[in-house]
Amino acid sequence: MKIGIVCPYSWDVPGGVQFHIRDLADHLIRLGHEVSVLAPADDDTPLPPFVVSAGRAVPVPYNGSVARLNFGFLAAARVRRWLHDGTFDVIHIHEPTAPSLGLLTCWAAQGPIVATFHTSNPRSRVMLAAYPILQPALEKISARIAVSEYARRTLVEHLGGDAVVIPNGVDVGFFAEAEVNPEWQGGTIGFIGRIDEPRKGLPVLMKALPTILEAFPRTRLLVAGRGDEKEAVESLPKEMRERVEFLGMVSDEDKARLLRSVDVYVAPNTGGESFGIILVEAMSAGAAVLASDLDAFAQVLDQGEAGELFANEDADALAEAAIRLLGDPARRDELRRRGSAHVRRFDWSTVGADILAVYETVTDGAASVATDERVGLRARFGLATRD
Fold first, then answer.
1. Tens of pLDDT along 336-358?
2. Distances from the Cα of 149 to the Cαs of 87, 135, 167, 306, 318, in angstroms?
3. Do 159 and 144 touch, CB atoms closer than 8 A?
4. Distance CA 37, CA 340 (A)
5. What is d(CA 181, CA 262) in angstroms, rounded to the nearest whole number?
6. Above 50 in pLDDT, residue 385?
7. Is 263 a residue whose pLDDT tops 60?
8. Between the CA of residue 158 and those of 131, 137, 209, 260, 359, what are the distances in Å?
9. How far is residue 379 from each of residues 24, 46, 143, 382, measured CA to CA in Å?
10. Is residue 110 within 8 Å of residue 88, measured between CB atoms?
11. Counting Cβ atoms within 10 Å, is residue 296 exposed (0-12), middle (13-18) or buried (19+)?
12. What pLDDT, on a 0 to 100 scale, did the predictor assign at position 56?
């Protein structure tokens, strides 16, 4: 199958959507499919062979963050050229409502279109106001996927229609088989995320850290991600700042090693999350996970069965839970076991098969697929039967 995938966000600035698209493309290519990904990227950025640059992105405030998007006449021309050259069997657009390549592709594409909705934003006035503009493009979508129930709810409430929920995928084996780094072991808490983006929650963790250090003075906080490191520790007493180690941007391999090595991985995110891919990666690596009780995080963690939850934005609750976990190795081991079992449902072997089923549904599948099998797929994904 020839598959075109559209990434809305700049390929050179890592994020959950980009990682999902990259890993999906890798998975599909390993299965023998021909895949091309169109993404914003600087023209001099080294790209994987399956990625085509649609030109440079610009930073735009979007969904409580700053997204690097690409929209305009030049981007539209590159979209049309990519579609013409690709002759795809199916086009898979991520975030089609974002003012970026996905929306441009919806306007320009012909044939089967699958759209994945990642955003969870229950009060988006912008999305509601933009609906009349978005409607003609959205009507061209053949099947909709939401990465979580909360992303699906955002779609239903703002744009109408429905979607099948297929979570983000993770290569569970990659994280489970990572080597432990001895330097990152022994009373360590891990955090991975953009340091200067408040909704990632590092300020909440920093506020909780003095209480944690009072109980366990030898604890270290390992922080991986880009941002202003000096500003991040300003709220800490000077004598405690040495207990925070900034690792900067880390490779995928080092991210896996970090998650394999820490005693507790903390996700103190405060909002705007529709899924929580880092939680799945942490569970895959066998980390004991402690996360804020966002609805999306609670769902990923099986309502607290596969990881502990604390009240969102409550630094005291975070500190209390972290102290409890640091002092209870048996509880950490229990969370690791439960997380490792729970996370298998997010492996690409499962997620990829579900996405391919959607592709086959909208393209009527291969000639060898029986009619009644296609009818079953259509019923599963809420599509009208044309057989």
1. 999 999 999 999 999 999 999 99
2. 33, 22, 9, 18, 25
3. no
4. 31
5. 9
6. no
7. yes
8. 8, 15, 39, 39, 25
9. 24, 42, 12, 5
10. no
11. buried
12. 84
| Span between the terminal Cα atoms of the chain, in Å | 21
SS3 105: helix
pLDDT digits (tens, 9 = 90+) for 77-97: 999 999 999 999 999 999 998
Number of other CB atoms surrounding residue 379 within 10 Å: 12
Tell me the pLDDT band of 67, cut-offs 50, 70 and 90.
Answer: low
333 three-class SS: helix
Q: Are 88 and 4 in contact (CB under 8 A)?
A: yes
The residue to which tokens 């030049």 are assigned: 74
Question: Whole-angstrom Cα distance, residue 54 to residue 77?
Answer: 9
Q: Within 13 Å, how many C-alpha atoms sit on residue 295's CB side?
A: 12
Residue 13 makes CB contacts below 8 A (sequence gap 6+) with: 57, 68
pLDDT above 50 (res 303): yes
Name the residue type at position 164.
Answer: V
Interacting residues of 25 by C-beta distance below 8 A, sequence separation 6+: 5, 35, 37, 48, 50
Q: Which two tokens stand for residue 370?
A: 């029986």
| 370 has a pLDDT exceeding 50 | no
Q: What integer is the mean pLDDT of 163-183?
A: 96
Q: Which helix (H) or strand (E) segment is 20 a member of?
A: helix 16-30
**CA torsion through residues 60, 121, 309, 292, sign:** positive
DSSP conformation class of 51: E
pLDDT per residue as tens digits for the range 138-162 = 889 999 999 998 889 888 887 778 8
Q: Render 322-346 in DSSP notation, one character per residue.
A: HHHHHT-HHHHHHHHHHHHHHGGGG
Give the Cα separation of 307 and 88 in Å (integer). Answer: 41
- Round to whole Å and give the CA distance between 149 and 30: 29
